[in-house]
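--- STAGE predict ---
source: upstream dedup step, 1 unique chain passed
mode: sequence only
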Amino acid sequence: FTLANNDLATTDGMNLGLTGIQTAHLTSGPKNAVFTVTNWTGTGSLGGGGGGDTVVATKDANFTLTDNSLTTTDGMDLAMGGIHTADLRGGPGNNAFLVGGWTGGGFVSGGGGSDTLAAAKDANFSLTDNSLVTSDGMALALGGIQVAELTGGSGGSTFVVNNWGGLALLDGVGGTNAYLVNLRGSGFGVT
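--- STAGE serialize ---
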């Protein structure tokens, strides 16, 4: 599915022009489906049909991704069910990707600007230049992210930062926390 403010297309050849439509509800069949919502700024829902379904969005906006929804600051607000992979890409400006409520896989790319990835969850974190993995199942490949804000929960968290070239803000919040930081290059420090 490719959903935009002015049309809806599918890989089976359907192509519908849309006028004045502000809400869309799309559900896939049993095969793997990709829902591309780059040019959609309305509301609605995406329903995976049991396959390995993916949501894709490229926007110069801020994103909030959870297991049940994807919202962006350009007005898009989608409920989701059965979506296990997200491919989110920012634009030339500064973009924020809030992924604390996500436990699936995918890819997050900042594009241009100074881009931030933030996750607050009662889990353990492993961060590199190329990935963020958490103990609750989230596994994201990363590209073009300059700042990572990782916040643990009350149960205590382990933060492993290895070969990260950006700014990492780590907050254990509660419980007993562990910080394992391996710096690369020279001129870096921990305070």
